[in-house]
Amino acid sequence: TGNRPFSADFPWSREVEQHLQDLFHLSKFRPLQLGVINLTLSVRDQFLVMPTGRGKCLCYQFKAVYSKGFTLVVTPLVSLMEDQIMYLKSTVMLNISSSKDHAKTVMAGMTDPNAPFMIVYVTPERIAKSKLLLSRLQKAYNENLLSRIAVDEVPYCSQLSHDFRPNYKLLGILQRQFPKVPLLGLQQRVSVIDFSICDRLVTFPGCLLPSPKISWDRLQPPTTIMRIQRVQIMDGWMSSSAFSILNIHKSSYLVYTS
Length: 258
Known about the structure:
Order of helices and strands: HHEHEHEHEHHEHEEHEEHH
Radius of gyration: 19 Å
Organism: Acanthochromis polyacanthus (spiny chromis)
Number of domains: 1
Keywords: DNA-binding, Isomerase
Domain Helicase ATP-binding: 37-186
GO cellular component, one term: chromosome
EC number: 5.6.2.4
CATH superfamily: P-loop containing nucleotide triphosphate hydrolases
CATH class: Alpha Beta
Strand content: 5-15%
Oligomer: single chain
């Protein structure tokens, strides 16, 4: 709790600092990175808001080099995939233009403990349309080789967003099929945290408080935290615990009725 995720008193803290120097050739973490990495290694779901250039990628790359298996990164940006592959040797990508032979090699490596890659970049279209890919991910999960899932540009999950993409709406299958794998949602900037985005990815208990840890860069704090909940029977909802929790948090709320 509190600032503990940003401390150095975890069982892996000394090894994490050593990896930072030996593998990434960095002397210290940037703001938020250590906390996110500690929560990742604690198998916690997270939603991270951090501007481009402040080190989001390290937050999931670190898990990939620290743990056995591989990290799955879902991103719509093929240019990001290409940049990462250029600078990181142990990465591969799967997108719509990937050849059948390349896709076959990558999918075979997902269940190989000695595979030459630690990070697999995929597009959301590949997740949505390839049953074979989901099948290989399931096998990797069963063999404890799928260690982490990162979803970049999570606003694409929200139908409220101008950037909404239908294929992102289907990514909730990753959490349902691989419930023991920690999930990291990534976003560049935010003025509103829309919990409906999180709902697409993570199954929450029936309350207004999110279960994942939400972190944002101190230079870009959100101005609004928003949760939208559709209710069929108004009087039943107003007597529920979901409504009563509003009295605990002294904030402003809008309730629309018809």
